Structure formats: structure tokens, C-alpha cells
Amino acid sequence: MNLKAQDSIGDYEVVHLLGAGGMGQVYKVRNVISDRTEAMKFVLSPAADDGELVDRFVREIKVHASLDHPNIAGIRTAQRAAGQILMILEYIEGETMEELLRGGPLPVADVVNYALQVLDALEYAHERGIVHRDIKPANIMITRGGVAKLMDFGVAKGPLSDDITRTGRAVGSLSYMSPEQIQGSPDVDARSDLYQVGLWLYECLTGRRPFGGDSDYSIIVARMQENAPSTNMLNPNVPRALSQVIAKAMERNPADRFQSAAAFKAALRDAISAPVGGPMQPSRVLWLTYAALGFTAFMMLTTLAAAIWTLLHAVT
User: Fold this and answer.
1) Exposed end of the chain (fewer CB within 10 Å): N or C?
2) Domain residue spans in the chain?
3) Would you say the pTM of this structure is higher than 0.85?
4) pLDDT, tens digit, for every residue of 48-80?
5) Is 193 an active-site residue?
6) Which one of the listed residues 11, 55, 120, 134 is annotated catalytic?
7) Which CATH superfamily is domain 8-90 in?
8) Fold for the domain defined by 94-273
9) Of the candidates 180, 187, 179, 125, which has an alpha carbon nearest to the alpha carbon of residue 150?
């Protein structure tokens, strides 16, 4: 079902299309009763006739509805209308990280701030047994006030949806999958999300993905066998300590990564508060110069005073 502006569906009037994927569409809509602007997501036809996909969408709704966090796009309700199951979401004014990245690498302080917010959301979700499994720039919205909002729990794994991976299929977006996702492991856990945050941080700070290629196969091989260049090699504005944190998050073996979102957050905070090497700032150099000159002058005056005192006593 393709909708256009001013079309009606249930108690909603369509404003315009926000985005579309392979299986669903998201529209900006207005509730004709409350006059509130919201977002509406539903499964596309003929996908709506696919029982497995509809069940998966219902699981997404239930997983998303179980979460209530300021850094997760809120779900308002779900309903049936025009033969469709509709998910009504918080409408967020802002841009996705994918849109922001079109201008190149982002400022280090902004990226770390957004990452801490996303990790807050993931820590909350992980505590409830939910693994997002699709952390990527397109699924993170930044509001006009600088608040990061995690979106799209379509492939999330949780208490009501952990059977999605039992077929052994890889689930997620190839460019951001963890090695264990690529292998179709049924044991993907919270550390996979943290790996994806590492990939996302890398891209935000360097303007490029850590693992690229001309084909899906080459991307997979690079992810499984190669180490990405450090972020501070590609962007000298990235502190070395922060680059090391990102490298740890992107370790191929889950046991070598951060074991929790809380540990990742702590490492990020330590990295941005660590002393930064390199040339001294001009103001610091000037201060040290004045201090050295002052000390030298003091020693000279002290020596002169001692010499005069000795001379006077010799005369008397």
C-alpha cells in the first residue's frame, strides 16, 4: 500500500513518506483526533501477506513496546486499519547519523556525546534481555537539541523474538554485522551491539567504514580477517586513547571486546579525559617561559645578595 499526502488510514492523515525499506514504510502522520504529529510504520504489501514477516513485525512491536528510555524512539501504540498492522511511533525532529555523515567526519566531542547516549540506551535494553543487532547510522536519530535516539528494533533479539536466528541465517545489515552475526551464530549477545557501536564510532570520526570492498564477499572477508587502520591515523584530531577504545570495541573475538555497555561508557569517558600528547599550546609554552625566567632572575638576585653580604662583612 503506497500512501500520499492527505490520505487517511485509521485515525491518521498522511503528511509525507519518511523512509522505506525492503519490507516496510514509515510515514509522518497526524492524528486527526489529538492533532499530534507521529510516525507510522507498517509492513508493505505483498509482504503483508507473508505470515512469517507479519509475525516478525508483531514481535518487533512487542519488543519495542517493552522499552521506555529517553534515548530510544518511543512507541505510542499499535492498531489494525485498512487490513494492516500499524505501529505508531514518536515523531522525531532531526537528522539521522547517516544524513549527518554526508558532510564528512563529525567533531570528536559530538561523536563521543552521541555514543554515550546510545550506550545508555543499549545498557537499558541489554538489562532487559534485548539485543538490537542493527546499530548503524541510519538507525540513530539526532534531535535538534542534540539528543540521540535509537530506532528500528526490526531484527532485535529478545525474550519474545529469540527464535528469529534459529534458521542459521545472518541477521542485520551486512556493513555493520559483527563476525558472529556473519557466521549466523544463534548465540549473538550484547557484545555484538557493542561491536557495531565501534564500527559506527569509527565511521563518524573518519568519514569511512573500517571494512570495505567491491562485493559482499570482500566485505565479509575483510571483516573476518583484517584489522582496520586506527582512527587517529585517518583523523589526527582523534586522541590516541579514544582510538584504542574503538579498536577494542571492534575486536573479532567477543571475549576481547568490552563485556558490557557500562564498561564501554567508562572507557570512553576515561579516553576523552586522558592527557593528550603532542606540541604544547602556545599559552602553556609562554607561561613556562615566564616561570623559567622568573626562577633564573630569583637565583641571580640571591647569588648577588650573598656576594654583597660576604663583601661587607669582609670589609668590617
Assistant:
1) C
2) 8-90, 94-273, 280-316
3) no
4) 567 788 888 999 999 999 999 999 999 999 999
5) no
6) 134
7) Phosphorylase Kinase; domain 1 (3.30.200.20)
8) Transferase(Phosphotransferase); domain 1 (1.10.510)
9) 125
